[in-house]
Design a protein that fits this description.
476 residues, globular, seven-stranded parallel sheet, disordered C terminus, SDR39U1, Rossmann fold, 2 domains
Length: 476
């Protein structure tokens, strides 16, 4: 991203301009921004902002209301679109909110037949005149810079998927659509131009839903589906793993998956690909051993390994019916919106450190790569069977803690002893936090997937809005 220097306008406003080259043509870039959900997709996760109302349009007169907090005070930001000229651009202004003046113009410039440039131009003015500018000008500028660094990275990488995987618009059914991965996946797929149908556990689904475990006639809706992404399952974290909870974890994955696959196998027009979630826990605690998709799975007396093995076996009806089947063996998925990273932020901010001795290997993947790799699996016919969804660079837990602390400007000083974790979490502590998984993404790399984030520190800085200062840049 290339940002122009600040240039105050004649009315005392400040001007911020940011440019981002895109790997698609001008019309495709504009269409991405026009689709429902784009604003939510491009809102940085560290900003305390939610979309309260949206007309789901960028045409002139359409409105959006955001809820946010500034210094702990709740505030609504109301904006209205005032210019709409596809595929050249659109613009919005603030009707009420934190700024005395805000005018944001999005322009799309053609570079050649398959490349374009997004130019964001924001003219803004803080309240209280020169006092507001003196006291809050620097903070406002840094906030805007961080926000557009995030927005342009997401936009660039999402549109790169269109360039890398030039598919016709597909109909894709997704289960677990309210979860961390599922919710973000549905949003991304919609913005990439695909139709998403959410798989629900209700008796009957709406027009854009499929009640896969409801009334038998609901399965007929799969007749028009090109791909199924099955992510549903009872969360592993939360309650202690009592025998009852462990059975619920197993049933939600194994039995529900088998029933879904049996239904898909009976269809006259079957989806071309079935992608089912799995986990690196299938390998069991393996210490220093380097693992890939050809490695043996864990022992049957290991709870997570056993459940994951049964989970993958439950997909057999789909595979035997000729549906290309992919098992996405997820590592630790990183996003501040949920999952492990969200749980680790508070301890890290109070100087929390390694878990146990910290020697255990953690195989992680950025949420954005989890989404991109799913698109890769949908679009790449040669990908099938187990696929490790992890970054190419696993890291020891103690180094993970140090890296997170460095990004947050906090020392990772206070360890969490094994006995304390086991006392608090029971069996979950050993299987999820203390076990060692040194897993590599052999299948993704060999099939040509390009990772967005292979370096942990870059990933954390991106998600937490802690971009490197010029003096922090690492020489090439």
């Amino acid at each position: 991203m290339d940002c122009e220097p600040e240039s105050p306008s004649c009315c005392g406003s400040d001007l911020y301009i940011a440019r981002q080259e895109l790997a698609v043509d001008q019309t495709t870039a504009f269409a991405y921004h026009q689709r429902p959900g784009c604003l939510s997709r491009l809102t940085p996760p560290w900003e305390n902002v939610t979309v309260e109302h949206s007309d789901q349009s960028i045409e002139v007169g359409s409105r959006v209301t955001l809820k946010t907090r500034i210094a702990g005070i709740p505030l609504r930001w109301k904006a209205r679109h005032v210019w709409y000229d596809p595929p050249n651009g659109f613009a919005d202004v603030q009707d009420s909110g934190p700024f005395a003046h805000w005018h944001h113009q999005h322009r799309f410039e053609s570079l050649d037949h398959d490349r374009s440039c997004l130019v964001d131009s924001i003219e803004y003015r803080l309240p209280a005149g020169w006092i507001g500018r003196t006291l809050g000008g620097g903070k406002a500028r840094r906030t805007i810079e961080a926000m557009f660094a995030y927005r342009h990275r997401i936009t660039r990488d999402d549109l790169q998927l269109i360039a890398d995987y030039p598919m016709q618009s597909k109909t894709i059914a997704v289960s677990g659509a309210t979860g961390l991965v599922g919710d973000a996946l549905c949003s991304m797929l919609t913005l990439l131009g695909h139709k998403v149908m959410k798989i629900t556990r209700d008796e009957t689904g709406d027009a854009d839903e499929i009640a896969a475990w409801g009334k038998p006639e609901e399965m007929k809706k799969f007749e028009g589906v090109d791909a199924v992404v099955h992510l549903a399952g009872k969360p592993l974290v939360g309650k202690r793993w009592t025998p009852e909870i462990k059975e619920q974890i197993r049933e939600s994955r194994v039995e529900k998956t088998r029933a879904l696959c049996e239904g898909l196998a009976k269809l006259e027009n079957k989806p071309s690909v079935f992608i089912c979630a799995s986990a690196t826990g299938i390998y069991g605690d393996r210490g220093e051993e380097v693992l890939d998709e050809d490695s043996a799975t864990g022992d049957s007396d290991d709870f997570l390994a056993s459940v994951a093995k049964q989970w993958e076996d439950a997909c057999s009806p789909a595979k035997e019916a000729g549906i290309r089947t992919v098992h996405t063996r997820f590592g630790i998925i990183l996003s501040p919106d949920g999952g492990a990273l969200e749980q680790m932020l508070l301890p890290a901010k109070v100087m929390g450190g390694k878990l146990g001795d910290g020697k255990q290997w953690w195989s992680w993947i950025a949420l954005e790569d989890a989404l991109g790799a799913i698109v890769h699996c949908i679009a790449t016919p040669q990908v099938h069977g187990p696929v490790n969804f992890v970054s190419p660079e696993p890291i020891r837990n103690r180094d993970f803690a140090r890296t997170l602390g460095r990004v947050l400007h906090r020392p990772a000083l206070v360890p969490a002893p094994k006995f304390a974790l086991r006392l608090a979490l029971g069996e979950m502590a050993d299987d999820l936090l203390l076990a060692s998984f040194r897993v590599l993404p052999k299948q993704l790399q060999q099939s040509g997937y390009q990772f967005r984030f292979a370096d942990l520190e870059d990933c954390l800085r991106f998600y937490l809005g802690k971009h490197r200062k010029p003096s922090q840049e690492v020489p090439a």
